[in-house]
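Discussion board: Methods & Data

I've been asked by a reviewer to show the raw model output for two of the constructs in my manuscript, not just the figures. I'm not sure how much to include, so I'm pasting the format here to get opinions. Each protein appears as its amino acid sequence followed by a line of discrete structure tokens. Is this the kind of thing reviewers expect to see in a supplement, or should I convert it first? Here is construct A:
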Amino acid sequence: MDATGDFYDLFPLSDDCWEFFLGDVCGKGAAAAAVTSLTRYSLRAAAVFNDEPVQVLHNLNSVCMHEYLGQQATFCTVVFGVLTRAADGFDVTMTTGGHLPPILLRRAGTASQLSALRGNAVGIASDPQFGSLQLI
């Protein structure tokens, strides 16, 4: 975490499953740092109870809407995903809330932007839409 509002994390849910996220909150300084902290810990807590990526972002959206209701615009963009160990690597399920599409780097060294993965920023609408993608 830094004072600009950028955040990221990778944490285990079990021996075969990890979750990751990265994003950015609106603003800078102490206000952005407070939202960043709320966002990071809300994502971790939501993932423990329901690790389906779209639901995790809906839970984060609910927290942000409740916490900052009626205050100046406070929102974030997020990429959130689940890595599950598979026989030959990992299966990945991910979603995005307003963040730039992630870039997939394959074992062979090729890369492609996952431009089909789109969604609303988190914390600006009571019923946002989040795109989801599963890579096997």
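Construct B, same format:
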Amino acid sequence: MVFTIKRRPTSQVMVGNIGIGSDYPIRVQSMTNTNTEDVAATVAQIIELADAGSELVRVTVNTELAAKAVPHIVEQLRATGYETPIVGDFHFNGHRLLQAEPECAKALAKLRINPGNVGRGARKDEQFSAIVEEALKHQKPVRIGVNWGSLDPEVLKRLWDENLKKTIPLSNDELMCEAMIVSALESIAFAKEIGMTDEDIILSVKVSQSQQLIKVYRDIAPLTQVPLHLGLTEAGMGMKGTVASTAALAVLLQEGIGDTIRISLTPEPNASRTEEVLVGKEILQSLQIRAFTPKVVACPGCGRTSSDDFQHLAQDIQSYIDNNMPTWKTQYEGVEKMVVAVMGCIVNGPGESKMANIGISLPGNGERPVAPVYIDGERSVTLKGEQIAQEFKQIINEYINEKYRKQ
């Protein structure tokens, strides 16, 4: 069962064929790290990310050659059957690139603008306006993405001067969060003056520390109706980045804040970019907000489970599900919501197995060498011997075929 969290009401924004906002699922997205000028490499990575579950993919558009490459990237993706919306990431020279290469804007599903990197002084409003006008001309939404690391210096200086005059001034962190919110809201207001509506805008206010991220999104959520994109920017590598992102996003998502997410992990050298997509999906699935693949519940083991049989079986079943899910999701409706329990002893084994769709409780130390299987809360069969894994997989197959087959 998918747990329902009451999300804050927002406007609805269409990004290509993907809807974003409170009436739509919380979307998982990612970004390529290839050179966008390299069409083949970028297409290959977008396909890899889409296959992993990224529902939108952002690409860097930083040079004229990159802007020229975008239509070819999208054309090749569509020719291979991928409808994944492609988002263009613009900094510093986006206004020039979009005006020089109108086919780039036509091919993209959304444009990302960073108010802190759009220009300085008198050119700031002019260049921001130029990008918004290109978006309007081609009927594309924008994401206004304010970042802690590239905050609009004019907004920051203005608030800094005001803060110095306060009886009780804000701390540096509080001031930075306030400056991000002011920059975001002023940018939204300016985009609306040019002609955009709430149905054209998505907003992000990203920082690299979990507590600050929670604060800034909590503060801005009541102040705007546009959908919010969540992400801990520069989260870091591996476990550190995964834990930091999860700690922040889980709090916000549980409070109903957030309409689309990205987990900005630093990949290890030459490693796949897909890890951040898998982490994003797992956060949503662990919170029971969305279901992407059957969940395998397995105990951590203790002194009762000196045998590692249950660990091997849990690993085997998880791999079996992962390998078969691409086929199952086309043939079986709702299979992604299935829960499979692989337990290691009698303490919690039968109970967890009964609460799962299908569960097996392997024997612990001193227990009879048998493994009862439970289906929808009822004991079904008892397995033993050397073929438990194969027999359990067959039970899973039969259950899926009976319960989830599309009518």
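Answer (T.O., handling editor elsewhere):
This is acceptable in a supplement if you add a one-line summary per construct. For B, something like: The chain has two domains: 12-287, 295-404.
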